[in-house]
Amino acid sequence: MNDLMPLTTEQHLLILNALNLTTAFMGGAALLFTLLRSQVASAYRLALSLMAAAVGMASYHYWQLLGGWKAAYVLQGGTYVPTGQPFNDAFRYADWLGTVPLILAALMLVLDIGRRKSASLVARLAGAAVLMIGLGYLGEVQHENLGLRAAWGAASCVPFGYILFVLWSELRGVLRFETPRVRELFTGLRVLLMASWSLHPLVYALPLLGLGGAPAFVLGQVGHSVADVCAKVFYGLMIYAVAREKTLSEEMLLGLEAPREVVRS
């Protein structure tokens, strides 16, 4: 929940457009990932289903944010002023609690590292993600006590660091058995995930850096939206690219191993 302040027309419309576009991106991606399931091998279709579920859930939450934003402001004398209706920004945290474990599970599935090891990694990564988001939320609601905000933010960086450790270190052995192209795609996927997730702590830290008022609020809302699109829509496209590459490699291998038909004279 945010303490709303008067905004210029440009500031209000910038957030409105960001929420509109993000809602549309997420909804369109849900349909796209569902249709792309037929383009990959059966072993990787569940990964795309999880991505479709994640962006579908995100589209719903952003639709709720969009409705709340429209209700929270009214135009008076060329300035948008709060109506008194709350803008429940906690929908973002509710969304992350549901979608982050799904996108991490999709990554494990597309790597196809074995059911037992995959289940173990998903459980550990999902637990770390929930802890990271929960600790971040405890700091997010600290609008006045910046010391507590900084402390909770620092605490949430610990599980974030653990997730990065798993993605960069523990999965290194798995990637040795992949093709160079898959390793290249996976490297890009990890960088995209780290970069997009890092935008959220930067927005979180704006009050700690002495930035406040309407400009910081607008930057925060737009920043979260951009980060979510990158971490879900573009991340999902990378998941598809890995699954498609592995599908083509497996089809080629099966073609080479298939017995050749004997040509009779």
TrEMBL record:
Cell compartment(s), UniProt: Membrane
Lipid bilayer topology: Multi-pass membrane protein
Regions that span the bilayer: 12-36, 43-63, 96-114, 121-138, 150-168, 189-210, 222-243
Keyword Transmembrane helix tagged: yes
Family annotation (InterPro entries): Arc/bac/fun_rhodopsins
Keywords: Chromophore, Membrane, Photoreceptor protein, Receptor, Retinal protein, Sensory transduction, Transmembrane, Transmembrane helix
Family of the protein in this entry: Belongs to the archaeal/bacterial/fungal opsin family.
Protein name: Xanthorhodopsin
Native source organism of the sequence: Deinococcus aetherius
Lineage of the organism: Bacteria, Thermotogati, Deinococcota, Deinococci, Deinococcales
